[in-house]
Amino acid sequence: MRRTTRLSLSLLAAIILALTIYAYPSWAGFSTLLFRAGAILAVLTIATVIGAGLSRRRPGRFDLIIALTAIGVVIASWAQISASADANRLAGEITDAGEENVLVVLAATETNTGSLVRAGVELRNGTNSEIELLFAPLWREDFANAIGGPAAEDADQLAAASENIAALAAAIDEIRVTIDQMLDDEIEAIAAIETALPDSARLSFAATARDEVEGDRKIFHARVDLAAARLDVAARIITLLQVNPGGYRYDPAAEALAFLAGGAILTATADSYLAMMANIEATWIEEGQLTAGQDARWMESVLALIEAASATP
pTM for the full model? Predict the structure, then answer.
């Protein structure tokens, strides 16, 4: 074997090793590079043989073919090399600013990785904000006033609250469907974000973003269930009050209803009322815990998206 051939083989091996470490850090990546090198070598060899046959000359030197293969591997891997450099640049920006300032970095970075994550985060923020608007009408001040305020002593206001609660309860399933459609649209929009990153990063990002959206879906569904339960309990409280007119009064000092003393039946009614009010309060506490957990995990979620967008084969 010629010395130049050995040098060319050493160059090819070094390039494959370097690319594996830098841009394809996995066995799958290493296998990809080997296959790519073999394919390029085969094409160049066949082209050389065919060219020599047509020109009736001896085939070109094999060491030159190997050297060209090494160059071809670099050229074919350039997109992934650029993506790795881009991801490393973003990682450096985050390290310099601190992870707690990752959103500031994303807002200012000019990296392709950061731009992809920024677009995904903006889509998610926008969708979640629109969904939050759907929850606002599911509980109204007049409901609270009817079950525990001055309106509880007004039969007309009780009847109006009961009617409005029933209307909202009937719309719960439609709201759940709307939320699902909005989240499905978000997943499609995230997957369609244009990026110069290779498929390894784009597909990894899309999959992680989908997982994060599905996490949001579970929380929103749980909140819808809590809203439905809250409306159901409020309706039962109003029914209880409607069948016990004069058995209670609103106490401004306590800002609550006070049931009048009057035997076992009224005592049982008061106990049922207090239990249902506690049930409603429990739904608010649980919903608060869900939203707090979602907010607390937000930074972790963004970092997961960055890691996914920095993926290598």
Answer: 0.82
